[in-house]
């Protein structure tokens, strides 16, 4: 049914609130996005994009350079781009992202 995300800033151990995220389809590359949002105070976005997404490939672009610059940190990663396959079939896909200025980690999560 939808994609949700949660971002934790590992440098502070707190949610990464205010982090800009955009959702794209691979065909559109850097063109128009399906959604442009910012994480809430809990570091979450739910849902990211339309409430009903069709099965297929999607790209999530996290504006990590902007986020860390606003906090006064230099960062190695100006963006984190995750390419995922959304299975459709009324499945909710949750994507956690653990973030620091010089590393990141993610996995397929559950709500």
Please, could you describe this protein's structure?
The protein is mainly beta. The chain contains 1 helix and 9 strands. It has one helix spanning 64-71; strands at residues 3-9, 14-15, 20-24, 35-38, 44-45, 56-62, 80-86, 93-100, 103-106. The strands form 2 sheets. Strands 1, 2, 5, 8 and 9 form a 5-stranded mixed sheet that branches. β1 and β2 form a beta hairpin. The longest helix is centred in the middle third of the chain and has 8 residues, at 64-71. The radius of gyration is 13 Å and the shape is globular. The two termini are 13 Å apart. The relative contact order is 0.28. The mean pLDDT is 90.
Topology, pairings included?
Blueprint: E1 3-9, E2 14-15, E3 20-24, E4 35-38, E5 44-45, E6 56-62, H1 64-71, E7 80-86, E8 93-100, E9 103-106
Parallel strand pairs: 1-8
Antiparallel strand pairs: 1-2, 1-5, 3-4, 3-6, 6-7, 8-9
Number of helices: 1
State Rg: 13 Å
Kindly state the mean pLDDT as a whole number? 90
- Structural class label: mainly beta
Helix share bin: under 10%
**Residue fraction in strands:** 35-45%
Unreliable residue runs: none
**Quaternary:** single chain
The best one-word shape is globular
The total count of strands amounts to 9
End-to-end distance, in Å? 13 Å
The helix/strand order is EEEEEEHEEE
């Amino acid at each position: 049914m939808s994609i949700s995300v949660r971002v934790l800033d590992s440098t502070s151990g707190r949610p990464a609130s205010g982090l800009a995220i955009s959702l794209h389809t691979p065909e559109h590359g850097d063109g128009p996005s399906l959604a442009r949002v910012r994480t809430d105070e809990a570091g979450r976005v739910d849902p990211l994009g339309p409430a009903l997404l069709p099965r297929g490939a999607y790209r999530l672009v996290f504006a990590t350079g902007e986020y860390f610059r606003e906090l006064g940190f230099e960062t190695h990663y100006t963006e984190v781009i995750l390419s995922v396959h959304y299975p459709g079939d009324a499945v909710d896909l949750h994507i956690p992202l653990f973030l620091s200025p010089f590393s990141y980690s993610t996995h397929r999560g559950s709500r």
